[in-house]
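The passage that follows is intended for readers who have already worked through the single-chain material. We present the inputs for a multi-component assembly, then the predicted structure in tokenized form, and finally a short commentary. You are encouraged to pause after the input and sketch how you expect the pieces to fit together before reading on.
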Amino acid sequence: MTLADGSGIRTTKLGPMLGAELHGVDLSRPIDAATMDAIRAAFRDNPVLVMRGQDMTPSNLIAIGDTLGFIEPHSILQYRHPAHPQLSYVTNVKPDGTIDEYGQNKRAIDWHIDGTFKTRPDCITFLYSIAAPSVGGATQFASMYAAYDALPPDLKARAETLSCFHMRGEGWKCTAPPPPLTDAQKASGEFDGSVHPLVIVHPDSGRRSIYASPTHTSHVVGVERAESDAILDAIYEVATRPEFQYHHHWKVGDLVMWDQRATMHRAGGGTPRDQKRVMLRAMVVSNLRADAA
Ligand SMILES: [Fe+2]
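Having made your guess, compare it with the prediction:
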């Protein structure tokens, strides 16, 4: 699809329900207002947006993130970029060149939505590929718009009335929680958990989306535990259907931006131990509570 702004920027679908590539943008250069408008328009319709062949510096990544909101540093301190702490690495390699076992085997392997446990959750996440394996290492995305649309009518009506409590790594189906917080982080109050509606309305697209994930969603508020587990289990069964997914197989220079208010994601694994998988990340936050219906 060519956007009707005369810029030559266009999108092509990467999957039937999710995933699109945006052509015609060069993020190594300052992004003018028309280009940014085109990116916003494409992103509104495609909550996983891929821009390939980019030659970006950390400053380029910060520039596009800053345009869309506030870039918040990641909670795992050891992965923060030393010169640009608002950026962090997703990597299977330690700074000394040895393998990072957490990054290789555990990190983000369960389905999740970034930062739902925060009072001010992440809104948009960017990953920029610096090193990519020849096989494996995909990031898998699932459309929570499609999940909402496909819920059985009774469950959909019930979900509209419910809220969930989110706590970092304490999701009912989390198998690989993130590393512990520091004492200062625990004392900050930022990680005490947060309650959000189970169904949210995206502020830009107007579409309804499921806002819960196996990693960080502890329980449905106000119902017995067994009922909470049954509700979330039924929702996850729909949300993880293969036809609602797009799997991104990384190439160096890929920038992927995705919307936390419309998708969940996980690391697909399978990176060979002798190959590097390194990405630079920026996370833009918003106050989702204000956005929710
Ligand atoms: Fe994530």
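Commentary: Residues 58 and 83 are 9 Å apart (CA to CA). DSSP finds eight helices and 16 strands in the chain. How closely did your sketch match?
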